[in-house]
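Note to self: the last two entries modelled the partners one at a time, which told us nothing about the interface. This time every component goes in together.
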Amino acid sequence: MSKSAIVTNSLSKKFGNFTAVDQISFDVKEGEIFGFLGPNGAGKSTTIRMLCTLSRPSGGSATIAGFDIVRQDSEVRKHIGLVSEKMIMYNELTARENLKLFGRLYDIPKDELNRRIDEILSLVHMEKWADKQIGTYSTGMKQRINVIRAMVNKPNILFLDEPTLGLDPQSTSEIREVIRKINVENRTTMILTTHMMVEADLLCNRIGIIDHGKIVALDTPANLKKMASGTDVAIHEFDIPNLNNAMISAIKAVGGVSSIVQESETRIKVRSGGDSFDSILDTVRKCGGKVKEVKSLEPTLEDVFLRITGREVRDSVSDTVKINHQGGPRHGPMGGGGGSKRGR
Amino acid sequence: MGASSIIRHSAWICWKDLTEFSRSKLRLVMLILMPLFMMVMVGFIFPSGGSISDQPVAISMQDVEQSVTNPLTGNTTTYWMGDTFVTQLEAINNETGMMTLSTSPGFDDIKAQIQDGKLSGGIIIPGNFTSDILAGRQGAITVITDQSNPQVSQMMQAVLSKTIEAMGTYFARMNVNRTYGVDFNSTVAVIQPYSVQFQGIMPGEPNYFQFVAPGIIGMTVMMSLMTGLPHAISYEKDIGTLDGMLVAPINRLSIILGKVLAQTARGLIQAAIVITLAILLFGVTIQGNILLVVGIILLSVFSFVGLGILITSFTEKEETATMVMMTLMFPMMFLSGVFFPIQQMPWYMQDVAHALPLTYATTALRKVMVLGAGISSIWIEATVLFAFGVVFLAIAVPMFKKAMSR
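The predicted structure of the combined assembly is written out below.
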């Protein structure tokens, strides 16, 4: 686990005047699942594309499995697999034909390739569908093939760009299961990008939080959460049936309150200094609010992001909220919330 | 990563493209319909010799008989030149069937009827026609045509000059007969000792399909490479599948070569369809060697490949690719002598035509298919096509490699 599969050194990408990736340096250890967490447009996909040799860096350098991504790009390509946000498959071809095509591009001998195809098809339980055209599949089935397609050449390093984007909850958990299985069984190093806190928390050994092209924090999920909670920060969720805007403004004005997030019509989540809980309750009562329930929450990665960047992840992209809840409500059964360390 | 692996990988990419293509019913139908549609369309809308018939034309006869008494013999002869003219005109028209003749009182009536679309033209034979001729002056005939239809005026000019010629011959023969006493049936050799006959160097009547079929073959091949290639690549770029090939350890050239092979196969199939349709439905015959035709087609493919790749490299999205292609294709289609000979164009446009590879492809195909030419007659075109291919590829390949690693 100590050898580095990926090392980047001040890697940058500019599009005209816009800096998409701003001198990021990190390394990913062999066998690790490394998460890139950040809102859309933060530079996650651009970083992945550079590491996959699809895009040339404007500055800095990186090595994949010891090979330079610019000078030794063809060597790099032999060691990597890419699960892109857009599915890399042809609808008119069957799953098997798709896998065969890409296997052939990696010069895998015929017999070995056929064995390999059966193996990865069974990994996602798609043997029965193997000879049907991809166009007839559901999105979840397509994504399963899309993931194993990147595995056809047994890559040491697998890049997964938003692998569960737009999937229903069931397919999402299936895909996450497959990702974990691949990682455990093949000791495949993985880089995963996501804007979903839960996903990063569930899957990743370490997480790099990326915002405006810069890595703003990089640690294990547990440590990141510790960082968010600290000793003097408490997060409380209030359920106030007669919640109104005046009340929210009043709470905001309470000393020690650092942020308020309205979760639903009646629920708000308040981050505050440890000793301001009483003052908040007083303020709510003063405004005529009836508190039905108060929960003390352990910080989630969302709180980490909030604390580091000063804004909600979902503020930046409205449409991700829906997917986020579909993918697993943050404090629901799937959730990485509540601080209970799941995953591996 | 030698040449053999490039070819192997490109064969797989070509296999993929063709499999995809063969499973799309709509695309298969279009593959056959497009050339058929093209042939039928251009074959029937463009005028050919026999296409004008039964044009309504009115004759306004204002001429009157004139009697002339020979002072020596005292015999009186009656002349009605206008009637002779109409008789000759009717005789010629009976052969060609170009006009449907009617009568009209005069100019104003003819004008009104042309405006109403009832007539295509009119012929006015003035009142002094016979007397002018008898007095040694030229007889004048007024022809009125529908200016909105240039074909009609051409047709009428042709018919009238034939009529006048026939009339002139008729009177000349009468005079020769009368003056020299030559037997009337032999007089023609006295007046027209020479005659000209037109014959093509190949048997058969020339027809427009014969002319246009080689052009359409050239155009189809050009289209499959110039639109098919950029489309195939920019489409994969848009839907994201191109990344799958780019991230594989294959030479970038394999991708473009695979696509070129698939598009070439498509172009050849379409060319074969055009040739088959042309022979079966439109009576076109191929005079030259069919292998030579295939050879020219392949050479044309080579000359367009670079241009196709160049467009691909410049255009990021499928939409822009389509726009750029259309802008380039239309001038090439109309300036390269596909539909009408470039010799008909003004000289500066001919110069433009000579800068387009399609011109050479079309000319070479036409020489072989229509004129039965051999290699020795088309080597200039072949060399130019090859040169176009080399130059465009030399520019396009580095551009493509650069474009693929943005």
